[in-house]
Design a protein that fits this description.
Elements (H helix, E strand, L loop, with lengths): L2 H13 L4 E3 L6 E3 L23 E13 L4 E12 L4 E7 L3 E10 L2 E4 L2 E3 L3 E10 L5 E9 L18 E4 L11 E4 L20 E10 L3 E4 L2 E7 L4 E12 L6 E4 L2 E8 L5 E8 L7 H5 L2 H12 L9 E5 L6 E2 L4 E5 L15 H9 L7 E3 L6 H19 L1 H19 L21 H17 L1 H15 L2 E3 L1 H12 L4 H7 L7 E9 L4 E8 L11 E9 L2 E9 L3 E7 L6 E4 L8 E4 L4 H10 L3 H11 L5 H10 L5 H9 L2 H6 L1 H14 L3 H14 L6 H10 L3 H14 L1 H9 L7 H14 L5 H8 L7 H12 L4 H17 L3 H30 L6 H30 L3 H6 L4
Parallel strand pairs: 3-13, 19-20, 20-22, 23-24, 25-31
Antiparallel strand pairs: 1-2, 3-4, 4-10, 5-9, 6-7, 6-10, 8-9, 11-12, 12-17, 13-16, 14-17, 15-16, 18-19, 21-22, 25-26, 26-29, 27-28, 27-30
């Protein structure tokens, strides 16, 4: 359709159904026009296809050195390529925000200059001829990477995409180490070296890193050599001789302690397993990472595919833009992973260690061919956490972890329900969500339960061996499962991976005394316009007369009744007895006896959890007794959950509950349970004399979480007492405890504690700054002008200097909160002054308050205006429209 015809069609859509008057020299005549329908011109749907492979990148060699002052990297790249299939004389490389100094073709021992164009994102090179798929060629590129001059991007999972990061480059912060590190995922590797930055590309790699001698370097593959340059620098040569995707290339540079471990392969050959940490954590490195060799053995054995890479190192970096990253043979972790042995009493991050290691099979060895297929990486890594926890700590602990995944997904699903594999995402970063991670892990768990362990792991072995060192899409996983099981599994993959949403299930029960039949009616209540009608294989356990019968059924209808022959009314009918369904569920068991029976006799962690959830709402004898039993449960989180929900039982049996909580607060083996008992004691029994118990906890408990909870409980009864105890902990290193002191001081402390707040800021990581800024802002609202003016730059530093926009938001919101507070205070004070006799002592004081508030408001407005001028994130700028 040409433009004129398009304009006519558009006018017809607007006017074609009306009558029109046609002018005449004498009279007007009304003419009826026939109407017709013009179909809207179809618009192409968004489809983010896998990258078309025009050239095949075979090998990358880099030689890099750094300008700390300018935060530049001077690089030389040698790229060996060949056309993928069709002959080609043009090459397009990803190269973001660089200065390109030279591009040449290496022919034997000579260089041939090539013409190129560069638009700051793509380097387009004209080759010297059209090469065929059988002809290799090598390019040399001399360039400078300038990451800080790139526009900001990123996602909630990976908060920045500038690829190369200089930390404390000028050494201006004496409390922060100088470091350089990289982050390639999703497509930020091309911010520090020219490449084909796509997950379906892979190549081998060499890198020469020249750096000051005091620093250690780390990269993929093996360290081949280290040469002293006799000028204060050293050049380390790292070689990776197995192909992997460019987004998995990495460097890390810093003053690290290296704790060395090893792992033996099946042939007895050891491989290096090293842990790079800041020197103050050297003694804790094995506590943080020490289970890594056992994980390597477990995953190799359970998958039937031995760990395929040359080494496995892990490094912790400052100001990381994500949680962790599975760079091949070298995982980067954020600084939150560094904890002392004492801090790890309250919880470690072993699930993250497991997640990144499992990626070395799912993501590194076999890689999603496009970001639309990201669940092939992240769903597996998430389920890898479950597998490790199940192996090491038992099924109850693993099922608790799986429960957390379901909660995480369902929380996101309130606002977002999309296909797992989706090609219509607005931005590739949108794929890094709770669908790709948490929901995907739950789907794999259902698949495992459906096909059985033997078939599940045999299918994974086939998938990994068939596609090693290759890119894949979701159908290839399905085909592997079909080949092993002999079953067409399109129904499973279509409803779970290629559709959105989840089942919303309602379960009803009835027993017919005459026919002696037990009926179970299951309804699927989800919106069928947007969500499938699911086919759901599940297990129903029927408990009767001391026996358990397990029956496998398949739910396929929107409402489906199942009947079972039962000579007597069952003690319990347990639907989804394996507790594996990804769904929302309303289970309408009618009696507390059934729920109590489920708690005491059904085998799963979630059986007991669901029973406590129901029984905690009742005050009858059976419910109360079961709640009290749950305080002694074998799993710590059931005990903790029972404590959290003990209120009704406490009304019925106050002394029994109180005494049990005191016992748990002092003696439970798990610190999270002890802390919960202390907190609930303070809420349910505020008048109880718990001073002796709390004093005992402060003197004897090693857990920072327990001590923090005890301090907050003391503060509820006596702020002065809490302040006295808190002062004794100001030199502790635990950020959990330090932030608790910040909370107590924010409500109670005077200006003398401002230096404490300033010191804490240097000890916390990015995530903890959310909490810190809330506490410090609350503290500043109660302080005199000089302290507020000292505090504003501290909060400003968070609002300006954090890499992640959502971290900067915490500082910005704190400044806006302070501004609103002082503007309101100024108004109130001025109103009060109007009602105060002139020249009175009170009026003089009010005048001083007004001047102080005006100076604070002026300073805050100036700071907010400055932030607006520097900020380029549209979300944050909306908060700053009035400035």
């Amino acid at each position: 359709m040409n433009k004129i015809l398009w304009a006519f069609a558009l006018a017809t859509i607007v006017f074609g159904c009306k009558t029109g008057k046609v002018p005449n020299s004498n009279t007007n005549h009304t003419i009826s026009l026939d109407t017709f329908t013009v179909n809207a011109v179809p618009q192409p749907k968004v489809y983010n296809a896998s990258n078309t492979r025009i050239h095949d990148l075979l090998h990358t060699k880099l030689n890099v050195r750094f300008d700390w002052e300018k935060q530049y990297m001077h690089g030389q790249a040698w790229l060996e390529l060949k056309p993928y299939f069709y002959s080609s004389s043009q090459l397009s490389l990803d190269a973001k925000g660089m200065d390109i100094h030279k591009v040449t073709l290496l022919v034997e021992n000579t260089e041939k200059e090539l013409s190129f164009t560069y638009d700051s994102l793509k380097l387009n090179i004209t080759l010297d001829k059209a090469y065929t798929a059988n002809e290799k060629y090598t390019l040399f590129i001399d360039y400078t990477a300038k990451p800080n001059e790139l526009p900001e991007g990123g996602s909630m999972a990976i908060s920045s995409d500038k690829g190369l990061y200089f930390i404390n480059p000028k050494g201006e912060d004496p409390k922060k180490p100088r470091q350089i590190w990289t982050q390639g995922e999703t497509e930020a590797a091309s911010c520090w070296f020219p490449t084909i930055d796509s997950p379906n590309e892979r190549c081998t790699q060499e890198i020469y890193i020249t750096i000051e001698k005091e620093f250690k370097t780390l990269s993929n593959g093996m360290l081949v050599s280290s040469v002293d340059n006799k000028n204060g620098t050293r050049t380390d040569y790292w070689k990776m001789d197995l192909p992997h995707a460019p987004y998995l290339f990495m460097m890390a540079i810093g003053d690290y302690a290296v704790v060395k471990d090893t792992w033996k392969k099946n042939d007895g050959k050891p491989i290096d397993v090293h842990y790079y940490v800041e020197k103050e954590y050297e003694k804790d490195a094995r506590a943080i990472f020490g289970n890594t060799p056992e994980m390597l053995s477990f995953y190799s054995n359970v998958l039937g595919v031995e760990y395929p890479w040359q080494k496995y190192h892990q490094v912790v970096v400052r100001d990381y833009v994500s949680g962790a990253m599975e760079n091949t043979t070298v995982v980067i972790h954020g600084e939150f992973l560094q904890k002392t042995k004492r801090e790890m009493i309250d919880g470690d991050n072993e699930d993250i260690v497991a997640h990144e290691l499992f990626h070395h099979w799912f993501g590194d060895l076999v890689t999603c061919e496009s970001w639309a297929n990201l669940p092939l990486n992240e769903s597996f890594a998430t389920y890898g956490e479950y597998l490790w926890i199940e192996h090491k700590y038992g099924k109850d602990e693993a099922d608790l972890h799986l429960q957390g995944d379901l909660s995480t997904y369902l929380q996101e699903a309130k606002e977002k329900q999309v296909n797992m594999v989706r090609f219509d995402y607005p931005d590739k970063e949108d794929m890094f969500d709770s669908h790709s991670y948490a929901k995907g892990g739950r789907i794999l768990h259902m698949l495992r339960k459906y096909v059985g362990d033997k078939a599940f792991f045999a299918s994974l072995k086939l998938y990994l061996e068939r596609h090693k060192f290759k890119p894949v899409e979701m159908h290839e996983l399905r085909l592997a499962f079909e080949e092993v099981t002999g079953e067409d599994l399109n129904w499973f993959f279509n409803q779970w991976f290629y559709s959105s949403g989840h089942p919303d299930i309602v379960i009803d029960y009835s027993y017919n005394e005459t026919t002696r039949k037990q009926y179970v009616v299951i309804k699927q209540k989800q919106n069928f316009e947007t969500t499938p009608l699911y086919k759901i294989p599940l297990q129903i356990d029927i408990y009767s007369n001391g026996k358990k019968d397990s029956v496998k059924v398949t739910l396929e209808l929107a409402e489906q009744a199942f009947e079972f022959d039962c000579p007597t009314k069952p003690d319990l009918v347990n639907v989804d007895a394996q507790k594996m369904l990804l769904c929302t569920k309303q289970d309408n068991k009618k009696s507390v006896d059934e729920w109590s029976f489920q708690y005491h006799h059904a085998p799963m962690y979630l059986d007991r959890y669901e029973a406590i959830q129901k029984l905690s709402k009742n005050s009858d004898e059976i419910s109360v007794k079961t709640m009290l039993d749950a305080l002694n449960d074998t799993h710590w989180n059931i005990r903790k959950y029972a404590i959290q929900n003990i209120r009704r039982a406490a009304k019925v049996q106050p002394d029994l509950v109180k005494n049990k909580l005191v016992e748990l607060a002092q003696n439970d083996s798990k610190s999270k349970v002890r802390a919960e008992a202390i907190d609930v004691l303070a809420r349910l029994f505020p008048d109880a004399d718990t001073k002796e118990m709390l004093t005992h906890v402060l003197k004897n408990d090693s857990s920072y979480k327990v001590i923090s909870t005890a301090l907050l409980s003391i503060e509820k009864k006596s702020a002065d007492e809490a302040m006295k105890y808190a002062a004794g902990y100001e030199n502790e290193t635990s950020t959990t405890l330090l932030l608790t002191l910040c909370e107590i001081y924010s409500y109670n402390a005077n200006e003398s504690k401002n230096n404490f707040f300033l010191n804490v800021l240097s000890k916390i990581n990015g995530y903890e700054k959310f909490t810190y800024t809330q506490h410090y802002t609350r503290y500043l609202k109660r302080q005199p002008e000089n302290i507020v003016l000292q505090g504003i730059p501290i909060i400003k530093s968070v609002a300006v200097n954090e890499n992640a926009w959502w971290m900067r938001l915490s500082g910005l919101q704190a400044l806006l909160d302070l501004s609103t507070f002082h503007e309101n205070k100024l108004k109130v004070t001025k109103d009060e002054l109007k009602e105060t006799p002139a020249n009175s002592e009170k009026a003089v004081a009010l005048h001083k308050e007004i001047k102080a508030s005006e100076r604070i408001v002026t300073e805050l407005k100036s700071v907010l205006k400055e932030i607006k001028e520097k900020e380029d994130n549209p979300t944050l700028l909306r908060f700053l429209e009035e400035y």
